[in-house]
Each structure stands twice: as C-alpha cells, then as structure tokens.
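Morning - adenosine monophosphate inputs below, output right after.
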Amino acid sequence: MALRIYNTLTRKIEEFKPYNPNEVKMYTCGPTVYHYAHIGNLRSYIMEDVLEKSLTFLGYNVDRAMNITDVGHLSSDSDSGEDKMLKGAKREHKSVMEIAKFYTDAFIKDCQRLNISIPKKLVPATSCIDQYIQIVSKLLNDGFAYISGGNVYFDVSKLTDYYVLTNHTADNMVNAVREGVEEDEHKKNQNDFVLWFTKSKFEDQELKWDSPWGLGYPGWHIECSGISMKYLGEYLDIHCGGVDNIFPHHTNEIAQSESYLGHKWCKYWFHVQHLNTENGKMSKSAGGFTTIDSLIDGGYNPLAYRLFCLQSHYRNPLVFSKETFEIAINSYNKLKTKTSKLINISSGEVDKDEFEKYKQKFALALENDLNTSMAITVLHDVLKDGNINDTTKQKLVMAFDTVLGLDLLKKEQVDLDKNTKDYINKKIAERLEAKANKDYKKADEIRAKLAEKGIVLKDTPNGTEFEIKR
Ligand code: AMP
Ligand code: ZN
C-alpha cells in the first residue's frame, strides 16, 4: 500500500503523491512567540512531527521548514485587535525581540522534551522582509492587491475560488470572521486581508521596515507564504497546522501564493484537530492553559503526553483531563516496563521474516491516514508475541520508535530534570514529616501517588532514595 492521507483541500483521504517522488516539501506554521506554547499547540507539533517521521519511515526524503511568528499576528486572525507580540512585551515589560527570543527558546526546549524534531529550516518571520515586499509588489502590479488607508490589502474578489480550502460560502465565512471583531473601513470586501501595514493603529509598534509603501510591517499570512517559497520553492507538497488555521490563515496563504505564482502551489493540507479542556478549546489568549513545564512540575514525564496524543487520531478532537491523562501515564509506564527488558539484549539473530511482517503492519497503520493508535497496537502485539525472540523484538521497537519518539529503549536518565528532582524531594520530605507525625495514611498515600507516576521510594539506612521505573 502507499501512504493515504486526508487532504483538507479535497475533503478526502487520498493517495499521497508528492510533486517530486524523491523529496517531500513540507511546511509547518510555527508558534507565535508571545507566550509559552500550551499542550494544545504541542499536540499539533507532535502530530506534525509524527507525520514527518512517518514519511521518513516510509522511505521519503523530507525537506521541511517552519516559521517563528515574531511579528504581524493580531489578536484576531483576521487583522484586527491588538498585536500579539506587543501584548506579550507589555505584559512582561520587555522589548518585542526579548519576548520573541525568550519564547522561541522555550518552544525549542518543549519540543526537545517531547522528542519533536525541530526542522533545520526554522525561520523567524522578521528575517524575510525582502521576500514579503517582493511578493506584495507583484500582487499590487498584477491587480490582486490595493492600497487603502495606508495599508496594502489582498482583494479576495479577484479570485473565483477564494474559499477552495473550506468549501464554505462567502456569507458563512464573513460571519465566522465578524464574530467579536470590529470592521476595517479600509477593506473593499470583508474578507480582504492585510499584506503590509503602514498606517498601523499601533503607535508604539516597535518593529518597522522600509517598504515601497512607507515604513511598516508584514501581515501574518504573507509570512508563511514568503518563508515557504523562499525555503522550499514554488511547489509545496504538504502544509500543516491546527484546524483553526484553515480559515482565514491557510485560505489567505493559498490566495496570495497562487496569485503570485500563477500556478497551483500546495497539494496536500494536513490539519490537526484541537486539544480541548473539559471547558472547551485550550487557548493561549484565554489563559489558564497547561504547559509542559506545569506537567513536569506535577512530576509527569512529558513523553506520557506524547503517548496521550498518539493514542488518538489526529483528526479527532481530544479532551485533556486529569482522568484521561492518567490513563496515558499508566500506559506509558507499562510500555516502558515491558521495553526496558529489551534494552540490554546484545546477542541473538533477528528473525528477518517476523521483522518484515511486523514492520509491514506498522507501516500499514501509518499509511492508513496516520493511524497512530493502530501503530501502537502493533507495538503491543510485538511485545506480547511469544513466538519471536527478544533480539527481533528489540529491533522492531527500535524501528517503531523512530516514528513514535517515546524513548522506549532509553534507560531512564540519571540526570533528571531539575524540576522533577525538586518535586520528588519535596514529596519525600512531606512523607517524612507525615511519618514523624504518625500520619501513616498520608505517608502511604504520598508513596502510592509517586508509584503511579513510576517513582518508587526505598527507605534505606541512609534515608529515602528513589528509583524511576518508566
Ligand atoms: P499559535 O502559536 O497560536 O500561532 O499556534 C500554534 C499552532 O497551534 C497552530 O498550528 C495552531 O493551529 C495550533 N493550535 C492552537 N490551539 C490549539 C489547540 N487547542 N489544539 C491543537 N492545536 C492548537
Ligand atoms: Zn502559517
């Protein structure tokens, strides 16, 4: 079988046929770095990472780029509201560039802790201003854009199929955008979008560049088209993001890129459904979100969150709650216990037929619109198969983990994250205090709670020690 994947553009599961079969060009909308990424954002990045690793597993070479949005993204995705970066800078009494650096570093650290590979082409939006100016100039020349009230706008009425990605009618989408958003009197059509801001409503906008239209800065949508074309060329195979990016962001990317290029641009659109809390979508602007740091502070291994995401399909909404996450933590700990027995196997023959049979099953799961939960079932089947030897199992787990990224054959790091160490030591101290107060129930509860997280306490003559069994 070949890879079959859901394409938002056609609203169908299709066979994946890149423009050039030897190299897949893949683009991912990166984070807006005005705050920490929450675990919802990271669900999207985990699944996009699994997509890239699956493509590699299935034999493709992948050339991938991702932007870092450090300018131009306003509170509403349709060019109104406050500038998100400026808002972050004000909140923390820092400059926009300081905020961008801080949260870019935090994003990279989160990705490392979740085994998300960072694309080599990780491009801050502020580094490609010339590229945006070139695209906007051509769009103006060719009549796809106009200047009004000092800003340059894309004129959506110039396209017959502006809504190609959504299959929605113009009225529907206008209503969707209008909700909670003030109208921009300079636009000819409600869904026209800003390519370049000059007369910004933000007097204190820090970052501005010279352009043929005056001192200003790019709109959010043009960044992704510009970076993608600069780093991956005129023909893109697959473009990724969360479902909230479909409209208006990706719709606008298609409009401006194809008007600029004069031909079809991206073949496949891959969208990850949202992570929700019990009260609705997890979002940065709504606040109260969960970060990887807060999971670690709670004593959890971030890779249990990766497994949590892999256990459900990327096109299904996923609810994060204490209960649902705890199921994933238990599954992760059980998996690690099973695979830890394979870590030190160093002799024995690989049974090639069995290896190929299971590798094929795993590939089939991925080829089935990235069915990661089915892929994990194949992993479990390997681990419980009494007819294959440990060497074969070890090699299969190793191969599967190049996609799953769960550190299944990695010995627990001796050098624990400082936060985890602090957390465990705090709990040990609380337990000692409970014992000193003869509150053995509480002491036992603390021990049991840690054990649930794979942290086993041992009372020794030198005090309480701990061992991680993940
Ligand atoms: P942002 O940093 O806000 O630009 O978002 C980064 C990525 O996270 C984008 O691809 C969004 O579509 C995605 N995203 C935002 N909220 C969620 C959520 N609750 N669940 C999954 N993905 C999300
Ligand atoms: Zn984007």
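Note: The pocket of adenosine monophosphate (ligand 1) is lined by residues 29, 31-32, 40-41, 43-44, 69, 241-242, 244-245, 272, 274-275, 281-284 (CB under 6 Å).

O.
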